[in-house]
Amino acid sequence: MTDSKYFTTTKKGEIFELKAELNSDKKEKKKEAVKKVIASMTVGKDVSALFPDVVNCMQTDNLELKKLVYLYLMNYAKSQPDMAIMAVNTFVKDCEDPNPLIRALAVRTMGCIRVDKITEYLCEPLRKCLKDEDPYVRKTAAVCVAKLHDINAQLVEDQGFLDTLKDLISDSNPMVVANAVAALSEIAESHPNSNLLDLNPQTINKLLTALNECTEWGQIFILDCLANYTPRDDRESQSICERVTPRLSHANSAVVLSAVKVLMKFMEMLPKDLDYYGTLLKKLAPPLVTLLSAEPELQYVALRNINLIVQRRPEILKHEMKVFFVKYNDPIYVKLEKLDIMIRLASQANIAQVLAELKEYATEVDVDFVRKAVRAIGRCAIKVEQSAERCVSTLLDLIQTKVNYVVQEAIVVIKDIFRKYPNKYESVIATLCENLDSLDEPEARAAMIWIVGEYAERIDNADELLESFLEGFHDESTQVQLQLLTAIVKLFLKKPTETQELVQQVLSLATQDSDNPDLRDRGYIYWRLLSTDPLICHIGTLASVYHKPPSAFVEGSRGVQHKRLPGSSQDTGSAAGVTEAPPAVIPSQGDLLGDLLNLDLTPPTTTGPPPPSSGMQMGAMDLLGGGLDSLVGFLHKISAAMPASFNAPVSGGLDDLFDLGGGVGLPMGAYTPPKTIWLPAMKAKGLEISGTFVRRAGVIQMEMTLTNKAMSVMTDFAIQFNRNSFGLAPAGPLQVLTPLSPNQSIEVALPLSTVGPVMKMEPLNNLQVAVKNNIDVFYFSCQYPISMLFVEDGKMERQVFLATWKDIPNDNESQFQIKDCHLNSDAASNKLQGSNIFTIAKRTVEGQDMLYQSMKLTNSIWVLAELRVQAGNPNYTVSTHEF
Amino acid sequence: MIHSLFLVNASGDIFLEKHWKSVVSRSVCDYFFEAQERATEPENVPPVIPTPHHYLISVLRHRIYFVAVIQSEVPPLFVIEFLHRVVDTFQDYFGVCTEAAIKDNVVVVYELLEEMLDNGFPLATESNILKELIKPPTILRTMVNTITGSTNVGEQLPTGQLSVVPWRRTGVKYTNNEAYFDVVEEIDAIIDKSGSTITAEIQGVIDACVKLTGMPDLTLSFMNPRLLDDVSFHPCVRFKRWEAERILSFIPPDGNFRLLSYHVSSQNLVAIPVYVKHNISFREGSSQGRFDLTLGPKQTMGKAVESVLVSSQLPRGVLNANLNPSQGTYTFDPVTKMLTWDVGKINPQKLPSLKGTMSLQAGASKPDENPTINIQLKIQQMAISGLKVNRLDMYGEKYKPFKGIKYMTKAGKFQVRT
Prior knowledge:
Chain A is built from 35 helices and 13 strands.
């Protein structure tokens, strides 16, 4: 005979039948009827119509029947408030019953009847029960205060129940204490600012005593409450920790985790050199590991918490990596959490193991998990630098599997690796390009496009690749469109001549044919930058009225050609103007690159060593990276980009060096080329800069003459270099202290350092400079003589020289002739020494003087040279070796 | 705290609801159903689901989802532990925890839930106390109740409810006084392709069945207590004594209970009971694959390895498997691709093997995934960690109890990658 029989009477007159049974004289029949009613209620049937009949059964000696009626009352009192009043009398009577079970049951049930009218009657019985002699009744009454507070908070405060509840924290029975704490915590949650649980050392002591004796649930309440306490000093927090630690061995995982919470918090206060601190750390690991062998849902919550713990104190679990290894039949939510923690714990010590696991996971069946595993490999590479190479090769292996989603995911993370470690792993680009066609997810496409744009100079057909993406431009997602736009602009800067058409095409697609404001805006920004239309900078000045650049009408710019960009005369900078007549793109590469990379140019700081320019570059990189850059700690670790092709571009510098037209009488010292005009006034709104480079006493200086050829006074000068081959950067600010009046010139010497960021330039000794004044920012590029970079200690030991000379492969040798030089070998040697080119040895063979020379560049690259001088022949032959 | 509880069956019907505070509409479960639909497997439903006004915390047991509804900040483990306790109690009361059993006993279930939680705070969750408050249904008692009109509900305040030993009821009497302890260890391991252990750990428990009269006070000591450095105790164990002397001292609950569970981590040297030699391979362009598996005992201290069951999820491309077991029987389910081989006992003289071919769809490419082999086994009379009980003593009562200790090792999540 089972309760399922209560469900079988579902026919028409059911309620009527039940009514009759409830009013039966027979006790047994009544009880069965109430059971039927309850059964219907549990499955969500409406039996509220029976309210008066059920309540009539309430006055009984049968405890089970009473409980059943109470169950019914709790469910339906709200819908029948008037009827519910009928029950009040019985409740009040029951609260006086000699049996504590009945008293407790009555006060418990009353609190569950959420009817305002009843709560008024509840207060008196509740007050009595809170002071009942039986702890079972007291602990039930404590919870009842919380219930009542939920229904009518004001009433509870007015009746002073909160104070009574606070007194119960000092009760002699631990269960009463635990319930009082639980009730107070719940009430406090709805009053965030109230000071209900004001904890002091005395109450804490009471709680800790109760902690040892109460049930597991009570322990959770007390521990959670303890976690809110702030100990006065480290001794107090140590003593609390000591008393909480045994809870770590509790069978209930919630108790364990609450104890961990208390310990993690109070540990913050302990001095790290304390022995106890170390002991505590060791004690925390085992219980956390044990949580992971429990049921999956427990594991999930534990893992989420461990994730937080590991972020704060990775040392606790640093040796426990293996417990986070994924079992193939773990539920997916557990797998993903484990993966996350594995990455957090990854370090150089365990990275090999982790990578082997991740690679294993990448061949599993679950697509989500596989994707996350591939991402994890990328995160490992970024987190543990030493592992980057291994990660890249693992990713390449995965790409070879040709599983579509694995390939896409791998490409996304390889992009991140490229960003973190630029110029290190480009050798894999070819493999990536092979998989171009299989990419169908926007993120993977965008990543691939970024790679192509970033490394355009190493990908022969970069323009074709990007062009192929361009065909379906409007079907792509925004992410891909933005990336494509940026990549093509980058490509254009690197290969201006071949890609002009492509860049025009993408700019017009982005600005004219797109409805996406982000894309349009970025398109316009690039377009502006590339067109170098000066007028946009002059809104609100005279120039905007004349629609001519200031140099065109400003006095002092005589002889300047009035050259303007096509379409600029009717362009006031409005978007409409641009779309009507797109300004032609001028491929003057140097200035443009400067423009793009130095968008947010700031004057260098006035004190200290060379300003850290990385911040500025990051801004620029962000622009180019399309804000996709999610990597933190963007480190520029560029291997010194000293190419093996040292010959052609530098020879100019060497020629200069040997251009000894002044004869033998010149004083010793480094050769200084004469000043040339770097920035004509017409290009810089009246500012003319001419200059040269000097090496004096081991310091490279840039000597400049600034001339104001405009009408207004110039102030606020600042200077900034773009990244260059040898890392040249201003070692201090540009010292132009007084304002530069019209037609005034000033000589400035700017000391340079060689510790700036490095990027290979074409030609090698090209330097792109931005100068700012109160009027505008101007860009120019100049070339510095390579001899400036030869350092004073470039004299090599004879033996070393000999050995090295032989060791250098012939491929690294280049030869050229210097013509029309009328010096004998000794004079030449002397002269060269002034420029830090040292003669190591001299040999005379068949009337030919052979000078063996060494020089060292600022980036520690040695150059060895052999200079052959034939007496009477004004032509020298130089062969240089460099390594 | 816990606001409401919904029980949901495998087909997504709510068959029971209980509210401890105000009534929460059933529609809140719609969020749960959405998550259920998204999950590929029933066990992949996330245990914590946020909804605009509530949180749903669920566990899946015996193909029933127990969904608790939470409205305020609550430790989720507290809720999950409580749900586990509900499941255990149902099982304890009805023998099984199934939808049918719950529906058959719906009034008792309702009474139990009411007794276990008050206003969302746990009230009585110890099975000893609950059984004093609400008597478990038995056929005899139902009959007696029907005839005499007495009830299932205890009229007295349970004695354990407020005492310092809340887990034990007073006045227990037995004619045969006996105490049995089972040391059961499960070994979890991941073995890689080449047969080396990636990770191996042991989850051990000591389950007890104590039927002793009065208030006995027991002590249990071990030959090698140092193994137990990561333990969780039943609340009855005196922690101080363990810390100081490594002796388990406790007043036991009446009946079945878990005395302690422990964990032997992968940092200790964990013995691996079996080895597997495998060759599961596919050739490019061929529609057949080779399957070759041999099992052998490894570190078993001379004990027999029994009830061995090997299962493996073969790649999706496999249509069928034609294999030949040297002993036992195997089945292959072509729908789920699950291969199971019931090996039985391993005879060290004649190692069991399973060899043959797998057929693939003609022209299909070689499967990418490598199947993982899952192994279940049992070893009687041995705890693989080497844990041994030294002695069991009883104080506080005069009689001489009968004592027994049993050891057993099982495979937990024992996985071999191929």
